[in-house]
Design goal:
The chain starts with 6 loop residues before the first strand and ends in a 23-residue tail after the last helix. The radius of gyration is 17 Å and the shape is globular. A six-stranded mixed β-sheet has the order 1-2-3-4-6-9, with helices on both faces. About 45% of the residues lie in helices and about 15% in strands. It contains twelve helices and nine strands. With about 280 residues, it is an alpha/beta fold. Helix 1 links the parallel strand 2 and strand 3.
Length: about 280
């Protein structure tokens, strides 16, 4: 039986704000293939809806999204169809958020990893909890960061900081990410959705075309660097055929956190869904 994507989509409120919630709280909102696929296509569906002015995206429970579900990521190393589909969907997530005319505001609580980061940080405005954990977990499993980080992080925080954070595989708190310019602002834990809705309501009061034109104009710099994204994504997916990556993912299988214990292990990466 076909799986249903674990995404909850509200009807727009009186201000035209539509809420998208990643809803697998018992798995820290880790993304299965069906969820990953849906996040690649969902953004374009709102462009032609006059009743939608702003999109807010968040995760249910204690995490935004702990990245790709481990079983799904393991499939990338063994199955050609899964790997090809995931490559196209990963591209679609980043391109979809970039090309969607309606502004997207993300509310990042708890942990965000890999594809979860791509959704949260490619939003036009990201509000992070001060104690959120933003992790690019690729290197820990023998892969390179290709789902957005090599493309976005240098533009957001500068090449020196981005190279250091990605080459060292260092986690960032929400407060650190705000200081570096990777997110718009950091707020106390538990307050991100309220703040995201407040900012979305402010955006919704402006003329819709002017808002959309502003998004297109400002995001022009990302489009200028699009080939960096394409190359980094291709390099990431090349890594999935390496024996070292398969071995690392197999070894990680037992070490998964419960939804009630999203604490980082000492090395800052292992123990969480990674991509």
């Amino acid at each position: 039986m076909a799986q249903t994507p674990a995404l909850t989509i509200s009807e727009p409120d009186q201000d035209g704000i539509l809420l998208v919630t990643i809803s697998r709280p018992d798995k820290l909102n880790a993304l299965r293939e069906v969820d990953h696929d849906r996040l690649a296509t969902i953004w374009s569906e709102f462009d032609d809806r006059d009743d939608v002015r702003v999109i807010v995206v968040t995760g249910e429970g204690s995490a935004f999204s702990a990245g790709g579900d481990l079983a799904f990521v393991q499939g990338l190393t063994t199955d050609d169809r899964t790997r090809a589909n995931a490559w196209w969907a990963a591209r679609g997530i980043v391109r979809g958020l970039l090309d969607c005319r309606k502004p997207v505001v993300s509310a990042l609580e708890g942990v965000a990893v890999g594809a979860g980061n791509a959704v949260a940080l490619m939003a036009d405005i990201c509000v992070a909890a001060e104690d959120a954990k933003i992790i690019d977990g690729h290197l820990a499993f023998g892969a390179s960061p290709g789902d957005h980080a090599a493309f976005l992080w240098p533009l957001a925080m500068g090449i020196q900081r981005a190279r250091g954070k990605l080459l060292l595989g260092e986690a960032l708190t929400g407060a650190e990410a705000a200081e570096l310019g990777l997110v718009y602002e950091a707020v106390p834990g538990g307050k991100t959705l309220d703040r995201a809705m407040e900012l979305a309501a402010k955006i919704a009061r402006f003329d819709p075309f002017a808002v959309q034109a502003t998004k297109v104009s400002v995001n022009g710099i990302l489009r200028q660097h699009w080939q960096t994204f394409e190359a980094s994504l291709a390099l990431e997916f090349m890594c999935f055929v390496n024996e070292s990556t398969r071995a690392a993912l197999a070894a990680a299988a037992p070490a998964r956190p419960s939804a009630g214990d999203p604490k980082l292990p000492k090395n800052g990466n292992r123990g969480h869904e990674q991509f």
